Amino acid sequence: MVNAVTVFVRVFLCLCVSSAAPPNLVILFADDLGFADVGCYGHPTSVTPNLDKLATGGLRFTDFYVTVGGCSPSRAALLTGRYETRSGIYPGVLYPGSIGGLPLNETTIAAMLKPLGYASAAVGKWHLGLGANGTYLPTNHGFEHYLGIPYSHDQGPCANLTCFPPDVKCFGHCDLEAVTVPLMHNDKIVQQPANFLELEKAYSDFATNFILTSAQKQQPFFLYYPSHHTHYPQFAGARAAGTTPRGPFGDALLELDNTVGDIMAALEKTGVINNTLVFFSSDNGPELLRRSRGGSAGLLKCGKATTYEGGVREPAIAYWPGRIQPGVTHELASTLDILPTVAKLSGATLPPVALDGVDMLDILFSHGKSKRQAMMFWSLNPSKTRGLFALRLVKYKAYFYTSGSVKSSTGPDPDCVAPLMFHDPPLLFDLESDPSEHYALSLKERPDLQNVLDQIMKVKASLEASMEFGESQIAKGSDPNLEPCCNPECSPKPSCCRCP
Which residue in the list 43, 127, 145, 231 is annotated as catalytic? Predict the structure, then answer.
């Protein structure tokens, strides 16, 4: 009876989607935000009223994953529905002068929706390549509009970032050898260095105007907002600076939350909120190296640049009033699943390539079971020869390799900075009873687990056999001449690359 009801609900929802106006999509993607950093995920001093409101009125995930603990590859996976190994966004991340970027033959969510007449805009941190003449910018990946910076704000001199008035500078110096970070509109530099204290207001205005314009035209839209917050070094403008009990990190998080509130207000004002799926998550776990300025994974192990739970399990919220009933789901899901879900909802044709995502309709609309049974994790420096680092199958997670990272250092757990280790048999954890990964299960004490491990190894072999590694875009190297400069003929570089 339950199965029959579930099938009926899904068929009914699909019929409604096909007969109604195409739904709008808003993706809110934080930066280096840990599992326990948001108020609705338990942080006692984070001030996030708008995200908390989404969680109260929407569906909050407890077992939602990104593919890897790093910025560029995680973003590639979200936008393409494919592991970063397929698109070549490895090893590590892209830089200001990187020669490569997300290949133009990769189909993003924006490109997939374009034939259906969707308007699309990206606002914030891109970090999927710049290239010669802006080859890899969002406007060449299906987005009509873009306002933002092309990479992380620490990939350039950042001592000019002000955390608190009057003129108290952010902690750290970032990359002093690169050009100052530019603000770009579509493929043009409009300001260099970007004024970060006014940047979030510019983003908010840009995003809300995009929503208003699209609604006035009665055009379905896709808004992708990959925020800079809460990546180190934190900054906040006048509306948020010095206002939270959590210090610079909390202020940056509040500024992100304020923009979320502005976006939600625009959806309400235009009357399109009941036909809009809003999805929030983050690109990877906290950079524990930065201590209190780096975020928190809570009870999860380690953080950024590791395959431990703290590096890849993220907060996630799906919100759609009238369509998604409030609640909490413990089902396994991933950023990989967003593209297939959007395709189902919009009627878009899936890209004719190997996809690694599955649609989440049953989870979203009936609080049902996930189609995803497994999640595999490569390191930030993946190798087809070495294979997977870790694999989660239902509630069990096996580690074939473990490795810490300097980005997850400063904590008391030595595993977070330990060197690469191979495990045979694999380390095995029950994530339902031990989400902190404190206690590896023993086959000697639990011989029944051999069946579990055999099943994991079978899934591992199948997944690895299906993985085609794309040409590494990051291995193509960097060229200082590709670093963005608003005055390309000036000298000496990079100090001369400054424009109001």
Answer: 127
